[in-house]
Amino acid sequence: MAELAVPAVIAAANQLMRGAQWAAATDLLRATNTDDPADRRALSVALAEVAVDQDFAQQTDHAPPALAAATEALDASPDATAAWDLEMLDLRKKFVGQLFSGSQQADKAAAGEELAGWADKLRDGAPDGVRRGMACFYAGVIADNLLGKHETAFASYTEALELGEAGSDDLLASLALRHLGDHAHTAGDLLRARRLWERSTELRQQVGHLLGALAQQTLLAVLLRDEGDAAGSRALATEVHRWADQVGLVFVSKETADLR
Fold first, then answer.
1. Most CB contacts within 10 A, which of 58, 118, 124, 203?
2. pLDDT, tens digit, for every residue of 180-237?
3. How many helices (DSSP H) and strands (DSSP E) are in the chain?
4. What is the CA radius of gyration of the chain?
């Protein structure tokens, strides 16, 4: 039987996840056996991350059992950083549930207040700068999408970008740039929106994040439309739609279908 270091397996699964290959990432992690409790904990948290990521991208619901299994593994082998990571995954899952729910805005706002407090707690207790930045980012999207507190969101994205750049975490930086670009677009500053969105797209392409790159190209299609290039917008949206349909990216498919 071949032997591989668990961190190498998790790194490979992470790249598969970024490439929208969630089933392959899950199969790889589940096929990895170890007697070490810390390695089992790491594999369980990695499986939970893949499930949470897939649930967001494809609007599925794989995460609850994966999160429960990771909680059991953490109980068997406690670790403060792993506990923080698992709590962040739980926050992400609950935020996505609210984001895509058909709840009334008042109900979303009530849930948003609870999630905002949770994000602030994670930010204050983060074990390093990149994790703090990720908590800042989610504080921002909660403020923007559930609470309508756009100034608070802008400040959170700005801090997330600074921490992502300081920690050389291109994915975190790209997330912040995407949403800062959205604020620029809403304000009518199309030049700034293009600069931020193009940089976010480049970073996502560099790290092999297919969903992220397609979501960014969707925004660039929106920008082309707003700049008056309707034909260019339709052409880009058509190609993104083709990609999104192939890998089941529900919300990207819908947005690009509308642009077409």
1. 203
2. 999 999 999 999 999 999 999 999 999 999 999 999 999 999 999 999 999 999 999 9
3. 13, 0
4. 19
pTM score, whole prediction: 0.95
Under a CB-based contact definition with an 8 Å cutoff, are residues 160 and 140 in contact?
Answer: yes
Cβ proximity of 45 and 82 under 8 Å? yes
Q: Is the predicted pLDDT of residue 3 greater than 80, yes or no?
A: no
Q: Where are the beta strands (DSSP E) in 141-224?
A: none
- Where does residue 22 rank: exposed (0-12), middle (13-18), buried (19+ CB within 10 A)? buried
- Paired tokens of 40: 């089992």
Element (H, E) at 47: helix 37-58
For residue 17, the SS3 value is helix
Closest CA to 211 of 165, 175, 161, 162: 175
